[in-house]
Write a structure and sequence with these properties.
- By secondary structure, this protein is mostly helical.
- Helix content is 30%, strand content 5%.
- The chain is built from 17 helices and nine strands.
- The radius of gyration is 23 Å and the shape is globular.
- The strands form four sheets. A three-stranded mixed sheet has the order 2-1-7. The protein has a two-stranded antiparallel sheet with strand order 3-4.
- The longest helix has 29 residues.
C-alpha cells in the first residue's frame, strides 16, 4: 500500500512517467492552511537492533512470496469460487461485510494507496545503500489534509482549478460523445499530453487510483455546491466558501480513514483503546464523551514524524491484497470476442491501451470505474449478487503481477544493485531489501517490545518454500514486513491485521490525526459527519454516493460565485 518503492531522482515532466518514489521535491507542497511543510522519518522502536540478514536470503524469500502462476490462485469469472477454499460457500456480501470478515472489498486496496500518497512522499531514498531514517525528509505533509488533492491551492496552482477558483477541474469524458451520460464514460483526470495535472502524480499510477482521484475531485465539487448554495452562506466570499468546503471534505475523509478503513483493518476495540473516549463535564451540564488518545508506541515531542516501521513494513500490507485483475464496469473488456476478457489485468508489460490497468496515460474510452464493482452499497444501478469483488486474502503471498512490475512502474533495474535485472521488477524483493537498507528490526523483536508473544519459526515458514539455509538465516529474526503479513495470516480473526501490524497502523493513523491542529479531532472533537444518509456515520461508499449521484437522482444545485 505504501508504494514509495524505488529511489533515484529522475526528473518528472507532464510527458514522462514517474517511477515509484523517483519524483524530485516539488517544493514543500503544504496546503495554504498547513503550518507543517516538511516532516521527518523516524523510528517507533529506536532501541531495537536491526534485523541483519543476508541480501541473498531476502531475495529468495521475496521470490517465494510471489504467487506461482501454476498454483491456480488466479481470478475466476463472477459467480465461480474464488481462490480461498474456506470462503467458497459464502456470498460476496458475507465475504465483505462491515466488520471485515475474511476479506476486504477490493476498493479499499486503492483507498489505502490514496491515503499513503496523502501522508508520505520520500523522493531521495535508495535501495542501493543504507538509509538513515533521521536523514530522510517526508516532502508530503504527514497529515490527512488531502494536499494530494488540493496541491498548493488555487493561488499557486491555478491550472488545477476552474476559473472561479473554487471548483477543481476534471478532464474529458471517456467517450467520443462529450455529452454522454453513460457512467462508463468518465470523466478522466485533467491531462496535458496524457499526463495528469493533479496534486500528486502518483495518483495516476493505475486506473483504479486514478479514478479514485477523480471521485475525490467530484466529491469536493459536490460539497462546494452544497455549501455555496446554502442560504446561511449567502454573504460569504468565494474564498470563504472554498475554505468551508475544503474543511468539510477533509473532515469527512478523516472520518472514513479512522472509522471505516481502519476499523475494517483492526476492529472497533483497537480504535477505541487508542482514542480512549473519556467523560467530560460540560459547562452546560451533563457528561460529554471526548477522545483522549492514548498511544503506547508512536510518540513524539513536538510534531509527528513518519515511522519507518509503518511506511516500509506495516502499511505495505496492501500489497498482499492486490488482485491480478479486476472487473471495473459493465462495458470494459480487453477483447470483446474472448470469454472472461472483462477481467482487466492490473499490469501488462506491453500491448495496446485496452490490455491492462496501467497508469500514467489517458484512460481508455468507457473504462471509467463503476464503484459497485469494488465497494458495497454503491447506488449506481448495477445489480449483481457477486459484487463487490473482494481483495485477495491478507497473507504472506502476493499476486503474480507484483512479481513482474512493468518498467514504467518499477523503474531502472540498477536501483537494485548486485542482482539480476528481473529482481528490480519483483515487489516482494524490493520491499524486503528496502527494510534491510533502513535497518528495520525483526518482527519478533517488535512483538516482544509490544508485549506480544511472537510467532514461532514454524508458524512463519509454514507454506513458504525456501531452502533450509534461508530458514536458518531467519531463525528468530524475520523481516518485519514479512512477519506482519504472516501474523495476519496466522493470528487475525478477520480480514484485517494481527496484533503487531494492527497496532502499528492504528497508532500511526490516529496519531497523525491527533498531531494535526486542523483535524476534526482537535478543532471539534465531538464532530460527526453530516453528509451521509445516516447521522453520525460515513463510509467510503457514502463518499462515493455523494460525489456521484445515483441514476435519476439530481445533483446539488451548482454554486456559481460569478
Amino acid at each position: 500500500m505504501n508504494d514509495d518503492l524505488t529511489g533515484g531522482s529522475a526528473p518528472t515532466t507532464p510527458t514522462q512517467p514517474a517511477f515509484h518514489g523517483s519524483l524530485p521535491p516539488r517544493g514543500l507542497s503544504g496546503t495554504p492552511s498547513s503550518t507543517l511543510f516538511q516532516g521527518r522519518f523516524g523510528r517507533m522502536f529506536r532501541n531495537l537492533p536491526a534485523c541483519e540478514v543476508e541480501d541473498a536470503s531476502l531475495v529468495k524469500l521475496g521470490q517465494a512470496m510471489i504467487q506461482d502462476l501454476e498454483e491456480g490462485k488466479l481470478d475466476k469469472p463472477l459467480g465461480e469460487p474464488d481462490e480461498d477454499e474456506n470462503t467458497a460457500e459464502l456470498s460476496q456480501e458475507e465475504q465483505t461485510d462491515l466488520d471485515g470478515k475474511l476479506r476486504l472489498p477490493a476498493g479499499y486496496t486503492y483507498f489505502g494507496q490514496f491515503v499513503d500518497h496523502d501522508i508520505t512522499f520520500d523522493p531521495v531514498s535508495s535501495l542501493t545503500r543504507q538509509n538513515d531514517p533521521d536523514g530522510l525528509a517526508d516532502f508530503r505533509t504527514p497529515r490527512f489534509d488531502l494536499d494530494s488533492l488540493y496541491g498548493r491551492g488555487p493561488s499557486d496552482q491555478p491550472y488545477m482549478y476552474e476559473e472561479d477558483g473554487v471548483h477543481l477541474r476534471l478532464g474529458l469524458k471517456l467517450s467520443q460523445d462529450q455529452t454522454s451520460e453513460d457512467p462508463t464514460a468518465g470523466p478522466d483526470l485533467l491531462r496535458s499530453n496524457g499526463r495528469a495535472l493533479i496534486g500528486d502524480p502518483r495518483n495516476d499510477e493505475n486506473t483504479l487510483v486514478s479514478q479514485l482521484q477523480v471521485t475525490f475531485i467530484r466529491f469536493h465539487n459536490a460539497v462546494v455546491d452544497k455549501v455555496g448554495t446554502d442560504p446561511a452562506n449567502g454573504k460569504r466570499s468565494p474564498d470563504e466558501i472554498f475554505k468551508l468546503a475544503q474543511q468539510q471534505v477533509r473532515w469527512h475523509y478523516q472520518w472514513v480513514v479512522i472509522h471505516d478503513f481502519l476499523r475494517r483493518l483492526v476492529g472497533k476495540d483497537v480504535i477505541e483503546d487508542i482514542l480512549h473516549p473519556a467523560p467530560y463535564k460540560a459547562p452546560a451540564g451533563g457528561d460529554v464523551f471526548l477522545p483522549d488518545p492514548k498511544r503506547r508506541f508512536f510518540t513524539w515531542e513536538k510534531e509527528p514524524y513518519m515511522p519507518v516501521e509503518f511506511s516500509v513494513a506495516a502499511y505495505r500490507f496492501g500489497h498482499s491484497i492486490v488482485r491480478p485483475s479486476y472487473l471495473i464496469n459493465t462495458e470494459a473488456t480487453t477483447d470483446p470476442h474472448v470469454e472472461n476478457a472483462a477481467r482487466i489485468p492490473l499490469f501488462s508489460q506491453e500491448g495496446g491501451p485496452k490490455q491492462s490497468l496501467n497508469g500514467f496515460r489517458t484512460v481508455p474510452d468507457n473504462w471509467a470505474v463503476q464503484w459497485s464493482f469494488l465497494l458495497p452499497g454503491i447506488h449506481d444501478g448495477v445489480e449483481n449478487p457477486h459484487l463487490p469483488q473482494p481483495g485477495y486474502k491478507l497473507d504472506a503471498q502476493l499476486s503474480h503481477p507484483l512479481g513482474a512490475l512493468p518498467s514504467s512502474t518499477a523503474g531502472p533495474a540498477a536501483l537494485v544493485a548486485g542482482f539480476e535485472e528481473n529482481i528490480a521488477q519483483d515487489l516482494a524483493v524490493r520491499n524486503l531489501l528496502r527494510g534491510r537498507r533502513l535497518d528495520l528490526p525483526s518482527g519478533q523483536d517488535v512483538a516482544e517490545a509490544m508485549g506480544i508473544p511472537p510467532l514461532s519459526d514454524a508458524e512463519l515458514f509454514d507454506g513458504v518454500e525456501v531452502d533450509q539455509t534461508v530458514k536458518d538465516d531467519f531463525a528468530g529474526r524475520a523481516p518485519l514486513w514479512f512477519y506482519i503479513l504472516k501474523e495476519a495470516e496466522k493470528r487475525a480473526d478477520s480480514a484485517g491485521l494481527g496484533p503487531v501490524g494492527g497496532r502499528i497502523v492504528a497508532e500511526v493513523l490516529i496519531g497523525l490525526l491527533e498531531g494535526d491542529p486542523l483535524s476534526y479531532l482537535n478543532v471539534k472533537p465531538h464532530w460527526t459527519p453530516t453528509l451521509g444518509p445516516t447521522e453520525g456515520k460515513f463510509t467510503l461508499s457514502d463518499l462515493v454516493n455523494f460525489a456521484i449521484p445515483a441514476p435519476g437522482q439530481p445533483a446539488p444545485s451548482p454554486y456559481n460565485p460569478g
